[in-house]
Known about the structure:
The protein contains 16 helices and 16 strands. It is an alpha/beta fold. The strands form 3 sheets. It has a 7-stranded parallel sheet, sandwiched between helices. Bound molecules: adenosine monophosphate (AMP). Residues 1, 3, 27, 30-31, 34, 53-59, 316, 318, 344-345 line the site of adenosine monophosphate.
Amino acid sequence: xxxxxxxxxxxxxxxxPIQKALSSEGYTHPTxxxxxAIPLILEKRDLFGIAQTGTGKTAxxxxxxxxxxxxxxxxxxxxxxxxxxxxxxxxxxxxQIGESIANYGKNLKSxxxxxxxxxxxxxxxxxxxxxxxxxxxxxxRLLDLMNQRIVSLKDVQYLVLDEADRMLDxxxxxxxxxxxxxxxxxxxxxxxxxxxxxxxxxxxxTILYKPAxxxxxxxxxxxxxxxxxxxxxxxxxxxxLLNNILKDKEIQTALVFSRTKHGADKIVxxxxxxxxxxxxxxxxxxxxxxxxxxxxxxxxxxxVLVATDIAARGIDIDKLAHVINYDIPNIPETYVxxxxxxxxxxxxxxxxxxxxTEEIPYLMDILKLIKIEIPVVTDxxxxxxxxxxxxxxxxxxxAKPTGNKFAGIRNGGNKSxxxxxxxxxxxxxxxxxxxxxxx
Length: 439
Ligand code: AMP
């Protein structure tokens, strides 16, 4: 994440309690999205922000909202109504936004609570009943509590839709529309999305009023910062290759991606057998298990966290230096999201990808998207025979990292010769041939 060295938080007219909180977080300068978005939000403009996680977008919307809420000086009688609603697709993202608000707002009076599904609603209901200024929620649970008449949104003045494209992908868009329909017309709305598919543009045009648009560094430049390497390996050798790579003690922690929940559990079992501490996070794990796995990983108690794409989306781990793609995702954008977990906040990052014969078509799609070549590591103990093959047509630029020239493979033992095996199971257990996905 690049920081803007000419603009300071002070020059953005942030109030002292926020400036103090930011310096205790170690933030010296706003990131580009913060430098652009904060003044616009403070001017009470609606905003369409095109940015992905890792750019500092959470602070870009939470800081000005905290500041505006702090200016509501009049004392409130009775229960505080919800004044700001933040909708986000996953529980992990919701929790992280909650943590950010706690950090940036620690010298302010506003309070917040986080609600999401998959856990008992009891403590969430109690927190809402006690009165909250800022409510961070996943759409399903919120709608549920609204239907039970536990939450009222009639006093909401600020609405944030975070990762709107992801909410669309996860099938939440109708819930989002239902929720938005109950909000006051007179409000300030901020919509953040990493991509701009037609459905998001349509949604933006219906819920934003004369929005300002801010856009930060496109995906490919994030990708270029990360040192990527590719290992061609037989499916059955992947676990040995993973062990081999993890012998490098420089890899203190690593986030390993698995496409399926079952696969993630299997990887964890294998690692534990080799005395490597590992835990999995995926949709079948309870909220508590996911949170404790994430906590152990962040504290370094667990060296390897194995995650599925949905569970890992938006996970923010400071100083995560290594991402390992145990398999190649069948949606090219997923590759970008996965490796984007590393190389954050200006840190360097490394991404290793294991590619078996059947995954080559997926790899081709990724290379077309990122338009850089990924150096291949050929001198590993489980390397498959490498032969040249036709590169994708895209005008591929040279990747920054050094290494062997990009090369294709033919696996002597496997007759599929790199052809797609067709449909594969994703995290939800659905058969999902790549071609079924809309881009
Ligand atoms: P986000 O894009 O909101 O997920 O933020 C990515 C990471 O950047 C988080 O770990 C933030 O704590 C960190 N971050 C956000 N703003 C700044 C800043 N101005 N300076 C340094 N780090 C930041």
